[in-house]
Design brief:
This protein has 612 residues and is of the alpha/beta class. It folds into three domains: 5-77, no CATH class; 187-400, Vaccinia Virus protein VP39 (Rossmann fold, 3-Layer(aba) Sandwich); 413-606, Vaccinia Virus protein VP39 (Rossmann fold), CATH 3.40.50. The protein has 19 helices and 18 strands. The protein has an eight-stranded mixed β-sheet, sandwiched between helices. Strands 7-6-5-8-9-11-10 form a seven-stranded mixed β-sheet, sandwiched between helices. α1 crosses α14 (421-441) and α4 packs parallel to α19 (572-584). The protein is globular, with a radius of gyration of 25 Å. 42% of the residues are buried. Bound molecules: 2-acetamido-2-deoxy-beta-D-glucopyranose (3 copies). One 2-acetamido-2-deoxy-beta-D-glucopyranose binds next to loops. It is found in: Endomembrane system; Membrane. Its EC number is 2.1.1.-. One of its GO terms (cellular component) is membrane.
Length: 612
């Protein structure tokens, strides 16, 4: 399959063009070839010539498209000044996460914790520079070895920080020379997490944590995840656990989790809701996550309630010293107001269950009222609201009633909005074959002067180098599903851009990780945290909403680890623009024509290992 597709495709725009005006030259050459006809290239295969003609006519069409596009293309390809390579940012930006400038936020008057919130509007002009890796940065070990051992220099953490860290999950770390080891296979230490997980399973009435999935627990939001060991254990049980923690200057839980190849994202809900729809998770877990659950009239508990599916669980582990009786009493009173029941308490661990009865909020006295606004259209980081979400949603289905989440039963699709089951099936079918094709392309060979020809052996795909995948415009989550079916051991962060069809509930319900995002802003993650970025149709979308493609690609460069891969799929116009920017960003880049008569193109890029 991969091979036949390979023979059909051809690589255009020549080999390894060094960051220059060469694209324009390439187009000129193509124009010449187009004018002179096949006779001038009798030494090349007929398919290749046709491809070039195709590109020529597509280029013509592009020129006639919108004046704007053409102007931008010209400005980019003329003016040597603009085609200059971007320089590296200063060393102080090694771990730079835009929108989280705590000092700046304090100066702007944010306080009471809101200075740790995401404030993109306060971060000012975006600088056009490339975030550099730290000295001694090393390519992470491949999965699963990389889950247990990471390179010290790749993350910003002080020795004191993990020796002094108090949280149960944090204490699992040990330091060895230039590595941090988590020893999850080491019987002695891992027992802590295993016992803990087993204890939670028993508290919700199961005989073992192997039954989590069977009991409807497929997705867990782990707030303040330590360094992800609990999540790593849940993943091994086939439960998708996403770590979420606030931005931290050093010792970041999110950075360490991602470095280990575990799903994680920066987020907090001090004043605003998280970028997930209501009724998203089967369990929310907080082990000493630093949130005062009894403060703000229970607003934080109400946000957890919003995220939980009916019948879902909230697990709170609070150290004995801090779980003061008065605080526990207050939390208990608040949970009664939102129709949660305390299932069990053992030592420092509490498990509550959200009601499965949507009438509970109106039938009991003194409960928090349902939200008036019942439509399912997502807003982006709206303020916390003192009301119960999702009671009127078609997606109000107790987790215990769900037999399996993946594969989804097409007959059940209508609860997610206006979807056509056939479309969903076709989408998955499409991604099954697309994944094979992409995967065979991800090899440095693609940039060589002698790209693969029909009949040659397929190059080895980089199975061992890719673990964290960001699907920047995930639609139904088809790429994630295809990865799962192909049993490739990656996980995918599925992003549903705002202002597009709201497919995130559908994605999350398949047991996948996902989040809303506005790609006109930067993504809430640390630099170098993803191994592969994929975006289908995102460039056109960014164009249509009037945001800067330059900012988008620079942000992608920040997120991508050195030697990581980018696969962009779009129409010719945006792909050409992106290709020129890729050159400025110093990515190796190749445009691939799918050769089926459409103007769809692939742009495959690899980020180099830049030091200076
Ligand atoms: C953060 O904000 C302060 C004050 O506005 C500013 O001086 C500083 O340069 C900002 N830092 C970054 C990394 O943008
Ligand atoms: C869930 O299952 C229970 C027992 O099978 C049933 O009584 C209940 O009506 C179901 N609830 C929903 C919302 O489907
Ligand atoms: C060509 O392939 C692309 C991507 O594989 C697809 O989106 C497009 O619909 C195809 N076009 C035709 C005319 O088959």
């Amino acid at each position: 399959m991969g091979r036949s597709w390979f023979s059909k495709m051809s690589l255009i725009f020549g080999p390894r063009q060094p960051r220059s005006l060469l694209l324009l030259c390439a187009v000129c050459v193509l124009v010449l070839i187009g004018l002179l006809g096949p006779s001038s290239s009798s030494d090349s295969e007929p398919g290749i010539t046709n491809a070039r003609l195709d590109v020529y006519s597509n280029y013509r069409r592009l020129k006639e498209q919108t004046a704007n596009d053409y102007l931008e293309l010209r400005t980019l390809s003329s003016g040597a000044k603009q085609l200059k390579e971007f320089s590296l940012c200063g060393k102080e930006r090694e771990d730079f996460v835009p929108c989280y400038n705590v000092t700046g936020n304090l100066l702007l008057g944010f306080k009471d914790g809101e200075e740790f919130d995401r404030h993109c509007e306060a971060s000012g002009e975006r600088q056009h520079c490339l975030v550099r890796p730290p000295n001694n940065y090393k390519t992470p070990l491949s999965w699963p070895a990389g889950r247990d051992i990471i390179w010290n220099a790749n993350v910003k953490i002080t020795k004191d920080q993990f020796l002094s860290s108090g949280s149960m999950t944090k204490r699992l770390m040990l330091l060895e020379e230039n590595q941090i080891a988590f020893h999850s296979d080491d019987g002695l230490i891992v027992d802590g997490v295993k016992d803990y997980s087993h204890q939670i399973a028993e508290m919700i009435g199961l005989t073992s944590d192997l039954e989590f999935r069977h009991a409807g627990v497929h997705t867990v939001l782990d707030i303040g995840c330590g360094f992800g060991s609990f999540g790593a254990h849940l993943l091994s049980l086939n439960v998708m656990a996403v770590c979420m923690a606030a931005y931290e200057l050093t010792g970041s839980q999110v950075q360490l989790s991602l470095e280990r190849g575990l799903p994680a994202i920066i987020g907090n809900f001090i004043s605003r809701q998280l970028p997930f729809p209501s009724l998203s998770y089967d369990m929310v877990h907080c082990a000493q996550c630093g949130i005062s659950w009894d403060s703000k009239d229970g607003m934080f508990l109400i946000e957890v309630d919003r995220l939980l599916k009916p019948g879902g669980y909230f697990v709170l582990n609070s150290p004995a010293g801090r779980a003061k009786t008065s605080s526990v009493t207050r939390i208990t009173l608040l949970t009664e107001k939102i129709c949660w029941s305390l299932l069990a308490q053992e030592e420092d661990t509490f498990v509550w269950q959200k009601t499965a009865d949507s009438q509970c909020y109106t039938s009991k006295l003194d409960t928090v009222p349902p939200c008036q606004d019942t439509h399912d259209v997502p807003s982006f980081y709206p303020p916390l609201a003192p009301c119960i979400s999702g009671t009127a949603s078609n997606r109000w289905i107790p987790i215990q009633n769900r037999s399996s989440s993946y594969p989804l039963k097409p007959a059940k699709l209508e609860i997610y909005g206006k979807f056509h089951p056939e479309e969903f099936d076709e989408d998955l079918e499409y991604w099954r074959s697309a994944l094979k094709n992409y995967w065979s392309l991800l090899t440095p060979l693609i940039f060589s002067d002698h790209p693969k020809r029909p009949g040659e052996e397929d190059p080895l795909p980089p199975y061992n180098m890719i673990r964290n995948v960001l699907d920047m415009n995930a639609h139904y989550g088809g790429l994630n599903a295809a990865f799962l079916e192909a049993r490739i051991s990656v996980w995918v962060m599925n992003v549903v851009p705002i202002r597009t069809q709201n497919t995130l509930p559908l994605i999350l319900n398949q047991g996948f990780a996902g989040v809303y995002h506005d790609w006109c802003q930067s993504f809430p993650t640390y630099p170098r945290t993803y191994d592969m970025l994929h975006a289908n149709g995102l460039l056109s979308h960014i164009d249509s909403v009037g945001c800067s493609l330059t900012d988008l690609l620079l942000e992608m460069d920040r997120i991508l680890r050195p030697e990581g891969w980018v696969v962009l799929s779009d129409t010719l116009g945006p792909i050409e623009k992106a290709r020129m920017l890729a050159t400025q960003i110093r990515w190796e880049a190749r445009v691939i024509d799918l050769q089926n008569g459409s103007d769809q193109r692939l742009l495959v890029c690899q980020k180099p290992f830049l030091r200076k």
